[in-house]
Amino acid sequence: MFKNTALTRWFFLIVSLLIISLIMWNTYSFFNQLKENEREKMDIWGAAQKNIENEDESNDLILKILQGNTTTPMILYSHKQDSYNNKNIPEEKFNTPEKIQNLIAQFSNEYEPIEIRYKEELLQTIYFGNSPIINKIKFYPAVLILIMLLFFSAIYFFFKTAKASEQNKLWAGMAKETAHQIGTPLSSLTGWAEILKIENVNPEYIVEIEKDIDRLQTITERFSKVGSVPLMEKNDVVFETKKTFDYLKSRTSKLIEFELDVPNDPLFVKMNPQLFSWTFENLVKNGIDAMKGKGKITITIETNLKSVFIRVSDTGKGIQKKNFSKIFAPGFTTKKRGWGLGLSLAKRIIEDYHKGKIKVLKSAIDKGTTIEISLKLLP
Fold first, then answer.
1. Nearest to 102 by CA among 122, 73, 133
2. Residue 300 backbone class (left: φ over 0; alpha: ψ -120 to 50; beta: rest)
3. Is the dihedral of CA 108, 114, 120, 123 positive or negative?
4. What is the pLDDT of residue 16?
5. Where would I find the H helices in 199-236?
6. Residues 61-100: pLDDT tens digits?
7. How many Cα atoms sit within 13 Å of 137 on the Cβ side?
8. Pairing relation of β-strands 295-303 and 256-261?
């Protein structure tokens, strides 16, 4: 199906380009033909002007030819009188010597001037330019290209939007199905935990099992929310960060050193705790992967009068500067495993749902990376 869709798009693109090329070629040919006709018309007009200059009496045909040209702008320079006359040119464009010379330069660039001679004597030089209709057609190819660019932009946007919508529905469906599938064994685990309490199993074991059950319930709720609009409420970002930090630290290898530097006072933002925790967890796990399971993760929270800044730093392999924005694109990954969806999902959660920003604050090859989340501070 995807192959047929791609072939259809290429076919549509090639046919469109052929049509545009044909229209452009015909427009160019038509434009040149009009220019040639204009030149021939002016040759006839120049011949009529020569006859009117050299004959004592003018005939009706010559007068008709001279009076019939009402569209071609022209300047007639008389060499004997050293004077300029014009025809079909507005007076405001012909009222100073500078404007006259500018028009002569323009007309000479458009057509070769016509010289009127009598017995080898140069009497007049006629400078003429494009008629209004030719000037309009001259810009037609540019207008056509602009229209086609807008057309292709609209088609591209349509295909991109349709594809994104299709992918979003697919991922949302998969996420909800995953949440549904996890739900059944999760309920069973909850029941077994209660049985273990009755059997007088070491309470410390049960506490740890219940923590993991709560975590699985949180993950299930996260997946069930994909594709729907999450509830956003006022929450303490310091508390939510500490809670996720403590869980990740307790479940991570001892080869990873954790450092937490956050304010003692609460900082309130409008957030969804489960989705924020998911994002925070993704950033930490990406940092651990970048360090290949050994290094230091540093979490800091800073604030100014308007925003809260949550920063996750690692001592991993770093990111090339050209990839700073690419890492948030769906499917982009430098790892051999994984689908490249973690940071894309993080960007969507932070920017689309929380109306914040997420970016690579700094990174250096083989020294580490710092990713920053900024959220609006609530009073």
1. 73
2. beta
3. negative
4. 73
5. 203-225
6. 655 666 677 788 888 888 888 889 888 888 888 888 899 8
7. 17
8. parallel
- What topology does CATH give the domain 2-138? Beta-Lactamase (3.30.450)
Q: Which CATH superfamily is domain 230-376 in?
A: Histidine kinase-like ATPase, C-terminal domain (3.30.565.10)
Structure token digits, residue 258: 């954790």
Q: Percent of the chain scored above 90 by pLDDT?
A: 26
SS3 category, 144: helix
**φ and ψ of 274, to 5 deg:** -70, -45
Distance CA 112, CA 128 (A): 8
Q: Per DSSP, which regions of the chain are E strands?
A: 74-78, 83-87, 114-118, 121-128, 233-236, 256-261, 268-271, 295-303, 307-314, 357-364, 368-376
Tokens of 82: 């050293």
DSSP-assigned states of every residue in 121-134:
EEEEEEEE---HHH
- CB within 8 A of 214, min separation 6: which ones? none
CA nearest neighbour of 182 among 129, 222, 240 = 222
Closest CA to 273 of 313, 312, 300, 234: 234
- The per-residue pLDDT for range 322-370, each reduced to its tens digit, is 888 888 877 666 665 555 567 888 888 899 889 999 999 999 999 999 9
User: Regarding predicted confidence, which is higher, 158 or 372?
Assistant: 372
Predicted confidence at residue 265, as pLDDT, reads: 93
Check whether 177 has a pLDDT greater than 90: no
Q: Which tokens hold the place of 228?
A: 């729907």
The phi and psi torsions of 209 (rounded to 5 degrees) equal -65, -45
Handedness of CA 210, 212, 218, 224 (dihedral sign): negative
Task: Of 39-43, 82-86, 104-108, give the lowest mean pLDDT range.
Answer: 39-43
Q: Distance of CA 273 to CAs 142, 219, 277, 349, Å?
A: 53, 12, 6, 11
Residue 51, number of CB atoms within 10 A of its CB: 16
